[in-house]
Amino acid sequence: MNVWATWCGPCVIEMPTLANLQAAYAGKPVEVVTISIDSEDSAEKAKLFIGKHPPLKFYHDRSMKLPFALKPAAAGMPTTVIYGADGLEKARVSGEADWAGPDARAVIDRVLAGD
């Protein structure tokens, strides 16, 4: 789960790498869920932006409360939380990351293996 916004430069930079990650795990039990915390006024802009990064889907936190609902709360944007099949948090990254790189894939592979 990636919490992001169009006004967040690092969020915009990392989105193509999240799309690459999702594509690399096609057919596997991995779903990259990108949740925009843009305001209602910017929601259409965010939806169009995600549309440029298939196979990602658009999700919108209209209340903009998700970053604060996480335990612990998100330290900033973007924040990515990786959950295991058991629904428990396995890893978290605050700030921009290269999700298409080998380090990110190693983390995902470990979570898939149940480690």
Task: Give a written overview of the molecule.
The chain is of the alpha/beta class and 115 residues long. It has a single domain, classed as Glutaredoxin. Helix content is 35%, strand content 17%. The chain contains 4 helices and 5 strands, in the order βαβαβαββα. The chain has a 5-stranded mixed β-sheet, covered by helices on one side. The chain is globular. The model has no long low-confidence stretch (mean pLDDT 95).
Low-pLDDT residue intervals, each spanning 5 or more residues: none
Number of helices: 4
The proportion of strand residues reads 15-25%
Total beta-strand segments: 5
Helix vs. strand class: alpha/beta
CATH hierarchy, class: Alpha Beta
Helix content bin: 25-40%
Total number of domains: 1
Mean pLDDT: 95
CATH architect. name: 3-Layer(aba) Sandwich
Query: Multimeric state of these chains?
Result: single chain
The arrangement of helices and strands along the chain is EHEHEHEEH
Tertiary shape: globular
> What is the CATH superfamily classification?
Glutaredoxin
- How far is it from the N-terminal to the C-terminal residue, by CA? 19 Å
Major sheet, described briefly? Answer: 5 strands, mixed
Q: How large is the radius of gyration?
A: 13 Å
Tell me the strand order in the biggest sheet: 3-2-1-4-5
Q: CATH topology, what is it called?
A: Glutaredoxin
